[in-house]
């Protein structure tokens, strides 16, 4: 297995992976496509196994008002038939070691059982508009000094 930065040749393969990994809706693939169409700054990697994209991870900007305050981890996906083999953990560990990532506060809405193992902590602050009550909102290197609602790129369709 190789981990590589995402390139345009991977786009259709990542879109197919996101449809497989999230079969109940198309939100993740639509987000992926819209973020790329709008040219948003993203930090993205894929896992390749025999030239097949088996996993994908992305980070986009997090905002406190108009100021960038960190990064959002989303989406993170592994092909269903490749899950429970450590690929997600390996890709996440790899991404968290990258210079641009390890210097930033990272936010994620996800399964606490997974992310707590990687040093993430539950966030009381900032508030997350995508997760009422912040029950699945976690942060890494978060310094909750005051109350604000964390912002996302417009393509996330955050309802206020």
Structure description:
By secondary structure, this protein is of the alpha+beta class. It has helices at 11-21, 27-37, 87-97, 99-102, 112-115; strands at residues 2-5, 43-49, 52-64, 67-78, 106-109, 121-122, 137-140. The protein has five helices and seven strands. It has a seven-stranded mixed β-sheet. α1 (11-21) packs antiparallel against α2 (27-37). The protein starts with a strand and ends in a 20-residue tail after the last strand.
Can you describe this structure in just a few lines?
The chain has helices at 11-21, 27-37, 87-97, 99-102, 112-115, and strands at 2-5, 43-49, 52-64, 67-78, 106-109, 121-122, 137-140. With 160 residues, the chain is α+β, with helices and mostly antiparallel strands. Helix 1 (11-21) packs antiparallel against helix 2.
Structural class: alpha+beta
Encode the helix/strand succession as letters: EHHEEEHHEHEE
Tell me the distance between the termini.
41 Å
Radius of gyration: 15 Å
Q: Could you tell me the mean pLDDT?
A: 94
Provide the helix percentage: 25-40%
Largest sheet: 7 strands, mixed
State the helix count: 5
Instruction: Identify the strand order in the major beta sheet.
Output: 1-2-3-4-5-7-6
Write the layout of secondary structure elements.
Elements: E1 2-5, H1 11-21, H2 27-37, E2 43-49, E3 52-64, E4 67-78, H3 87-97, H4 99-102, E5 106-109, H5 112-115, E6 121-122, E7 137-140
Parallel strand pairs: 4-5
Antiparallel strand pairs: 1-2, 2-3, 3-4, 5-7, 6-7
Helix pairs in contact: 1-2
């Amino acid at each position: 297995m190789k981990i590589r930065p995402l390139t345009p040749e991977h786009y259709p393969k990542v879109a197919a992976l996101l449809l497989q990994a999230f079969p109940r809706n198309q939100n993740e693939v639509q987000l992926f496509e819209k973020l790329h169409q709008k040219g948003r700054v993203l930090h993205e990697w894929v896992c390749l196994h025999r030239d097949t994209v088996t996993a994908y991870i992305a980070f986009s900007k997090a905002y406190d008002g108009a100021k960038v305050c960190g990064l959002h981890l989303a989406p993170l996906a592994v092909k269903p038939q490749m899950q429970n083999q450590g690929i997600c953990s390996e890709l996440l560990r790899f991404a968290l070691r990258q210079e641009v990532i390890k210097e930033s506060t990272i936010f994620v809405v996800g399964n606490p059982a997974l992310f707590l193992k990687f040093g993430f902590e539950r966030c009381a602050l900032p508030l997350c508009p995508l997760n009422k009550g912040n029950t699945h909102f976690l942060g890494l290197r978060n310094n909750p000094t005051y109350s604000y609602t964390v912002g996302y790129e417009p393509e996330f369709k955050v309802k206020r």
